[in-house]
Amino acid sequence: GAVVSQHPSRVICKSGTSVKIECRSLDFQATTMFWYRQFPKQSLMLMATSNEGSKATYEQGVEKDKFLINHASLTLSTLTVTSAHPEDSSFYICSALTGGTEAFFGQGTRLTVV
Amino acid sequence: DAKTTQPNSMESNEEEPVHLPCNHSTISGTDYIHWYRQLPSQGPEYVIHGLTSNVNNRMASLAIAEDRKSSTLILHRATLRDAAVYYCIVQRNQFYFGTGTSLTVIP
Fold it and tell me: Which of A13, A57, B10, B79 is 20 to 30 Å apart from B101, CA to CA?
């Protein structure tokens, strides 16, 4: 299957700082990417849909000013967690859509805010 | 997007077939049915997807009911590496995850 790479796989940051997570589709172009958050023992929660060259669409209850998404190219989307706090600690996962019907997922980023 | 209902957990003996059910009674005509599985601390892995007809690939088979209100993921011979949380997703635009089924494979 297609490969989606996420970086970093783990990050620890201090409270109040910002963290950027990258999501790359390595062998295909993705006009649409999705960002998820997953807390321990829970399912993935969709945060936003990222479309190349346009503004992201956020799910209800997700603060767009806190979770900045940029999808500047067909192979790269970034999620920036701004002014991170301990409650933002979570497993963040991206996916990229190919062909309109298949989504491939990155390996996830474990964010810990101390 | 259509809601999916799956059992919270299932068990299977190693090398036996496993049938993982999913109900999606509010599915619309053009919605695709996807199955992913996830191991702890990893991103979901694509398993299979289909629209109306049954589908087979090297990992599994997908049996879709004639009215499309339910589907079944079939693992033909469960191995210990198949132990994971399996998610059934009905895709209209986005991919919304339900609670999934945690599959335990007993040696």
Answer: A57
